Amino acid sequence: MKGIYLDHAATAPVLDVALEAMVQQMRDGGNPSSLHASGRRARMAVETARENIARAVGADPAEVIFTAGGTEADNLAVKGMYWKRREGAPHRRRIILSPIEHHAVKDAALWLDARQDAILEWLTVDEDGRVNPKELAALLTDSSDVALVTVMMANNEVGTIQPISELAEICRHHEVPFHTDAVQAFGAIDVDFHALGCTSMAISGHKIGAPMGIGALIATRQAPLTAVIHGGGQERDVRSGTIDAPAIVGFGVAADHVCRHIPREAQRIAGLRDQLVAGVREAVPEAILRGPHDLSPLRRLPGNAHFTFPGCEGDSLLFLLDMAGVLSSTGSACNAGVPRPSEVLLAMGLSETEARGAQRFTLGHDTTAEDVERLVETLPGAYRQAAAAGMADHAPTGSWA
User: Fold this and answer.
1) Does residue 334 have an active-site annotation?
2) Per-residue pLDDT tens for 75-90?
3) Distance (Å, rounded) from C-alpha 39 to C-alpha 203?
4) Domain of residue 139, residue span
5) Looking at residue 355, which CATH number applies to its domain?
6) One of 171, 259, 312, 334 is an active-site residue; which one?
């Protein structure tokens, strides 16, 4: 990717090893559902990738259900569990979720609320964007009518890591299924599905250097799921469709490569992130770090630095940085171009004015110290221009008669 790429939360550059494996599988061909030799070879490649991904997330291979990405995995979990839980128990209408969920979860729940009789109950988050397990426990005092609980593992905007094992344990105690969107966490920090105790977990390939269009729902064998896509009965009969062997092979290679290097890479990237935070604060003292100020790996993703820059619009600052060759974002790429304050920042207690000027810098496997230095050098000038434009946009209009 050209320029200084600081938007790895949106997508990561494809790893060479994943690209090579994917291209080779495309050359080999074969439908994994076919019974002849070509199909069996393709099936073997898919199952090897399944084993790699299962090992990377601390799950059994049979618990890996391939999807077309994190969004589909989240939809399968939220809708599939809601529908399955209501079979024979239609009073189970409550869905408990956090207000900072990715729209793949939030919009699926809102759709169920609008069209499928669901009742949504929203957890609150503190100023760091963190859920309080005690609040969830209180909401589950009577859990007889709860369909599911869903809280993301790590936030895609401000990098907050949630106490997932505590939340999952509370749900287990009350016999309520618990789903977590781990798309941002997987590949950045250690993720152990069995140790966390979740019922299901969504992951995605393109966040870790695999191709776009491939993901997985990790789900226990006992997970209550109704199929969202129907057809040939592939993937435990809950996700039908011809299996995308090349993408899956690339996903498996990327997962194996990235997760074997997490301890060293997380430490390296966190060091660069800390350098970035210190540099931004010095270069632009007005900048305010959002999300956990505790930058430890238990609280914040190692590659995430999110700031608000008072007096300017986030899009203006983004385009000025882009013109200077520094590629960042204002938040979730799924909301890019939508002129409204971040729902995550608002849920954390910021006003609409305070949420203006948001800028997310996310680092990855190809980020260098020189990239961080370039951002710090470029930022003050871009900020001054964006702030000047913001003042002009909000200046009073009219003339004296």
Assistant:
1) yes
2) 999 999 999 999 989 9
3) 26
4) 16-259
5) 3.90.1150.10
6) 334
